[in-house]
Amino acid sequence: MKRLFLTSATLLIYIFSFSQDKSKISLIPQPVSVEDGNGSFVFNNNTAIEITSADKDLNRVAGYLAEKLSRPTGYPVKVNQVNSFSGGNIHLRFSSKT
């Protein structure tokens, strides 16, 4: 009986692990927009988080994200305030939509 239960539980876990929708990008908090493209994003020594505002809260969030990304990637992720976004970096901005 115990073996049947374990086999059934393992089978259910296996089935449910492959039934997830892979087409959606899951992020918390949910961004206003996400552009899904081809290719991949590669971290390197020049990777930065770009922000277009001197807003105190945006700087705090960008700094937190930079810290959280620097540890596992091994690269020093910087926060740069810019007038316009450039390619190859992470772009953060507040939206006026609520």
What value does the Rg take, in angstroms? 20 Å
Structural class: alpha/beta
Helix content percent band: 25-40%
Number of strands: 3
Uncertain stretches: none
In N-to-C order, the SSE pattern is HEHEE
What fraction of the residues are assigned to beta strands by DSSP? 5-15%
Assembly classification:
single chain
Q: Helical element count?
A: 2
User: How far apart are the termini?
Assistant: 54 Å
- The geometry reads as elongated
The major beta sheet can be summarized as: 3 strands, parallel
Mean pLDDT reading: 81
Strand order of the largest sheet: 2-1-3
Detailed description of the structure:
- This protein is 36% helix and 11% strand.
- The protein is built from 2 helices and 3 strands.
- It has a 3-stranded parallel β-sheet with strand order 2-1-3, with helices on one face.
- Helix 2 (56-73) links the parallel strand 1 and strand 2 (78-81).
- The longest helix has 18 residues, at 56-73.
- It is elongated and about 65 Å long.
Question: Could you list some keywords that capture this structure?
Answer:
single chain; 98 residues; alpha/beta; three-stranded parallel β-sheet; 2 helices
